[in-house]
From TrEMBL:
Protein name: GYF domain-containing protein
GO CC term, one of those recorded: chloroplast inner membrane
Family annotation (PANTHER family): PROTEIN TIC 56, CHLOROPLASTIC (PTHR37755)
Residue intervals of the GYF domain: 45-93
Pfam family, one: GYF_2
GO biological-process terms attached to the record: protein import into chloroplast stroma
Coiled-coil zones: none
Top-level division of the source organism's lineage: Eukaryota
InterPro entries with a match to the protein in the record: GYF_2, TIC56
Organism of origin: Micromonas pusilla (Picoplanktonic green alga)
Length: 207
């Protein structure tokens, strides 16, 4: 069996080397980045705001506007098709390149420098905390590191949990002001009424 020749491949694609082998290293990485940017541009995204409430769906252009206006940042949790869980924005491959286009960078520079500087954001956050409208004041780097450590310890101990299902992110019917049972009952009644009307019209035509 070892001396026998193997049959030729049945497809032309079997004769080609994978791109990771046939392409130069830099060209291959550029190709992968372009593919990631294409997937990101066509995907639909959800993100969790500063209160933990999921927002979305939104396109890449909406994400760019939110990023430029400071609504989301590199630490904001995002979810999209192909992701198994909520992950920080900085961990989504290709997203940084999509958000660092010249237009978005220029708008973000104007917002951070003139419209709403970081100093004003911290003061606004602290004022909301003093009024009881925010759960925590503005954190500096050390405070954020301490919070992250407490958060990790709480997750390990099982005192807190992360959202693993996007179905939990969907707003409840009560929050939307809809009654699911009544909504479907109304649809069923309308459909039955429509069918009854159609049967009556057919009976009149036959008569």
């Amino acid at each position: 069996m070892a001396d026998e020749e193997l049959p030729p491949p049945s497809r032309n694609g079997d004769l080609r080397l994978p791109r990771s082998v046939s392409m130069q290293k830099d060209d291959y990485y550029n190709y992968v980045e372009l593919m990631c940017e294409d997937v990101i541009r066509k995907n639909v995204w959800f993100y969790r705001d500063r209160t933990g409430l999921p927002r979305g769906p939104c396109t890449l252009n909406t994400v760019r506007k939110c990023y430029a206006n400071g609504i989301v940042d590199q630490h904001t949790l995002f979810w999209g098709n192909g992701l198994g869980d909520w992950v920080p924005l900085r961990n989504i491959r290709g997203m940084s390149a999509s958000l660092n286009d010249p237009k978005t960078k220029f708008v973000k520079f104007l917002v951070d420098t003139f419209a709403f500087p970081k100093k004003d954001r911290r003061e606004n956050r602290n004022a909301l905390y003093d009024e009881g409208l925010a759960q925590s004041p503005s954190y500096n780097r050390d405070d954020a590191a301490k919070w992250r450590k407490r958060r990790e310890e709480a997750l390990v101990a099982g005192e807190e949990s992360t959202m693993l299902s996007l179905s939990l992110a969907a707003p409840r019917a009560e929050r939307l002001g809809l009654k699911v049972k009544g909504f479907f009952a109304e649809r069923i009644a309308n459909r039955a009424k429509k069918n009854a009307t159609g049967e009556e019209e057919q009976g009149v035509r036959r008569a």
